[in-house]
């Protein structure tokens, strides 16, 4: 029995030396094999300085009512002031006209001139109406005071009655009209597709 106790004591004494040595070996290999930090993990101080000097607003949302009774809503992913203008990325305008038509305009970029009360949507602008018109052009300018919308150039249109191309689009509310009027002008070409 004393021999078993003696063996057990020797075994425990052996482990008291072996286990700390094994732990020390493992810890030293972790430090020896650890890689130095790469440049990707460093904080980009130059980028932080640039961001601090260029104030931005994320998720901007502005709405109001135009003279013709249209409710206009502007949203943008990011905006930043540049002098008199406010530049915007992923700018969208939603217009609920007085006659019940909904107009949605989306563009990659844009600028809002608060003094002139205009919003310019540029970079392949897409316009869609609730009464079946869908069109693309290089940009649209919306007058936030009057509700008037004009295209910046030629556009291609899908309409309920077919398709057309035009040099310019003007959406306005004439004084004698009951609601907004969509006027295509400057070289209009219409392809009529009759309903079957």
Describe the structure.
- With 196 residues, the protein is an alpha+beta fold.
- Helix content is 21%, strand content 48%.
- The chain is built from two helices and twelve strands; from the N terminus they run ααββββββββββββ.
- The protein has helices at residues 2-33, 45-53, and strands spanning 57-65, 71-82, 85-96, 102-113, 118-129, 134-143, 149-151, 155-159, 162-166, 168-172, 181-185, 189-192.
- Strands 1, 2, 3, 4, 5, 6, 7, 8, 9, 10, 11 and 12 form a twelve-stranded antiparallel sheet that branches.
- Strand 8 and strand 9 (162-166) form a beta hairpin.
- The longest helix has 32 residues, at 2-33.
- The termini are far apart.
Tell me briefly what this model is.
This protein is 21% helix and 48% strand. It is built from two helices and twelve strands; from the N terminus they run ααββββββββββββ.
Primary descriptors:
196 residues, alpha+beta, 12-stranded antiparallel beta sheet, 2 helices, elongated
Report low-confidence residues grouped into runs of 5 or more.
none
Number of β-strand runs: 12
Mean pLDDT: 82
End-to-end distance, in Å? 105 Å
- Main sheet? 12 strands, antiparallel
Rg on CA atoms, Å: 34 Å
Class based on secondary structure composition and strand pairing: alpha+beta
Beta-strand percentage? Answer: over 45%
Shape: elongated
Succession of helices and strands: HHEEEEEEEEEEEE
Helical content band? 10-25%
Number of helices, counting only DSSP H or I runs of 4 residues or more: 2
């Amino acid at each position: 029995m004393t021999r078993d106790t003696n063996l057990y004591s020797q075994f425990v004494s052996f482990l008291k030396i072996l286990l700390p040595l094994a732990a020390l070996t493992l810890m030293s290999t972790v430090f020896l094999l650890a890689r130095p930090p790469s440049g990707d993990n460093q904080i980009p101080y130059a980028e932080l300085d640039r961001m601090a000097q260029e104030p931005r607003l994320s998720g901007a949302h502005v709405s109001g009512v135009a003279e013709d009774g249209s409710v206009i809503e502007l949203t943008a992913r990011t905006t930043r002031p540049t002098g008199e203008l406010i530049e915007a990325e992923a700018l969208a305008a939603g217009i609920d006209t007085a006659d019940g038509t909904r107009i949605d305009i989306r563009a990659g970029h844009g600028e809002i001139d608060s003094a002139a009360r205009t919003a310019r949507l540029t970079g392949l602008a897409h316009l869609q109406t609730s009464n079946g018109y869908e069109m693309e052009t290089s940009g649209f300018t919306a007058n936030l005071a009057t509700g008037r919308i004009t295209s910046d150039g030629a556009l291609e249109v899908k309409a309920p009655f077919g398709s057309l191309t035009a040099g310019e689009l003007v959406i306005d509310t004439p004084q004698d009209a009951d609601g907004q009027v969509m006027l295509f002008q400057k070289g209009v070409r219409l392809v009529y597709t009759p309903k079957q």
